[in-house]
Amino acid sequence: MPQLLTLSRAARLIGIRRGALQSKIRSGELAAFEGMVSARDLLRAYPGVKLEDNAILERMDRIKDAAFARRVRERLLPSSEVLVARLTEMSRERAQIQARLEYYRGIVEQLQSKAREFGEAASPQAAAELLAWLKHGLEPGPQGDEPQPLLVHDSFLRIMTAHVQIKPSGHEFFVDGNDSLLEAALRAGLSLDYGCSIGSCGKCKARVLSGQVQRTRHSDYALTAAENNAGVVLMCCNTAVADLEIEAREAHGAGDMPLQSIEARVKSVSPVAGDIRLLHLQTPRGNRLRFLAGQSVSLALADGPAASYPVASCPCDDRNLQFHIRRRAGDSFAERVFDGLKSADTVRVEGPRGKFVLNEESDRPLVFIACETGFAPVKSLLEHAMALDVAETLDLCWIASGKDGHYLDNLCRSWSDALDNFRYLALTADGALSDEAVMQDALRQVLQEHPRLGDCDVYVAGPGALASAAEYLLLERGLPREQLFVETAAF
């Protein structure tokens, strides 16, 4: 019986993207069995892979911390209690396997004895042949017959992380370090149902179907006796000890996102270009914004000025919200951001709204076209797609005017350095972006990179006229309507 691995575990073991494995399966280079691959076929498909114990963690943290520009988290190692629990669980499994092997050894010895008895009474030659066959079958195989290095590496991975699968969706994620189930799922880009995230509201209930969890945080919310008996836990207050299967509610679209109203505080206002500020808001720990990448919210100040902006950050960091604010004549909210907003000021956040969200059911390559500050929702979508790690390729074309138009150019280039499936094209228009000719030129370069654009999902965001021009031109070139997503709000 071959050792089978889920695609998520297989990708993490050899340090590649899950999308790359899916690509090899589609091309026939790698066999799959009900969504799983064998360890032997995996090494055959990647013969040059180096199984170094720290390669997985280094790659994971480089992408999550450097490419996503997040603060470095002190979470490389699980807590001592979780480590002890995982080692205890693995020791228990080893003892069970050892007991089973001893049981099978006893059966084989009895079979040898019976074969000898029957053979001596009937046919000594047949008995000798049967005993020789048994002896040959029980001898260890040749060195290297089984992919031992991969299985040893899998054991290391199980100590450092726990693999979790959600039912009924089949979505998977890994729990690293001291993360709770909820934190790990959000970082993996999954849209689970939750509220306070500190054990007070009970919205993040999940039922443990198999595996073991350990409480990591006190909860003020009391589960009923029936829920406790059914294996229900709060995901924000528990972590996975070993591989886990849970039943939990997930959002499947913008319609599943509840409308929320949150008092957030200004963390910082940073200049990223002459006429653009990066507004960083932080929500209370117990009242975070639940939203889908690409959605927008309304921002309002206590004395009246309000405006709607797309969230420019990833839902995987739901407490820290970023917005790209462009200074425009007559925009009183933007004027306050530029001239009067200070750290610790309060901003009311209401939302989320909008249907410019990622089609997570698609496994097609993703192409993003951002015009000016239309980069804000595109950035959120890109970071979400990176967290999900299912797209075969990610391409970004950012069209902007002026020398500061690509105001986060270094961030995009860091993604190119960290991710082997990400490509970045920065196009600078002469003068203002105002006519179809600019979009024609941009799309011509995009089509050079993607001559089969009909095989991709395309996301376009920018000022109304340009986004509408892109929509018309893409449909004219044969892109199926269901593979095109456009955001034409004012940016």
Averaged pLDDT, please?
Answer: 82
The total beta strand count reads 20
Corresponding CATH superfamily of the largest domain: Nucleotide-binding domain of ferredoxin-NADP reductase (FNR) module
Low-confidence stretches: 52-64, 66-75, 143-147
CATH architecture descriptor of the largest domain: 3-Layer(aba) Sandwich
CATH topology of the largest domain: Rossmann fold
At the first level of CATH, the class of the largest domain is Alpha Beta
How many structural domains does the protein architecture include?
A: 4
Question: Largest sheet, order of strands side by side?
Answer: 13-12-15-10-11-14
Instruction: Report helical residue fraction.
Output: 25-40%
Class of secondary structure makeup: alpha/beta
Task: Note the main attributes of this structure.
single chain; 491 residues; alpha/beta; Ubiquitin-like (UB roll); Elongation Factor Tu (Ef-tu), domain 3; 4 domains; six-stranded antiparallel beta sheet; five-stranded mixed beta sheet; 20 strands; 36% helix; globular
Please tell me about this protein's structure.
The structure is a single chain. By secondary structure, this protein is an alpha/beta fold. It has four domains: 4-49, no CATH class; 155-253, Ubiquitin-like (UB roll); 255-353, Translation factors (Elongation Factor Tu (Ef-tu), domain 3, Beta Barrel), CATH 2.40.30; 366-487, Nucleotide-binding domain of ferredoxin-NADP reductase (FNR) module (Rossmann fold, 3-Layer(aba) Sandwich). The chain contains 14 helices and 20 strands. It has helices at 7-14, 18-27, 39-45, 55-67, 80-121, 124-138, 148-160, 181-187, 225-229, 332-339, 375-388, 409-418, 436-449, 464-476, and strands at 4-6, 36-38, 161-167, 172-176, 205-210, 213-215, 232-234, 238-240, 244-248, 260-273, 276-282, 296-301, 306-310, 320-326, 346-353, 366-371, 394-401, 422-429, 457-461, 484-487. It is globular and about 105 Å long. Mean pLDDT is 82; it is low at 52-64, 66-75 and 143-147.
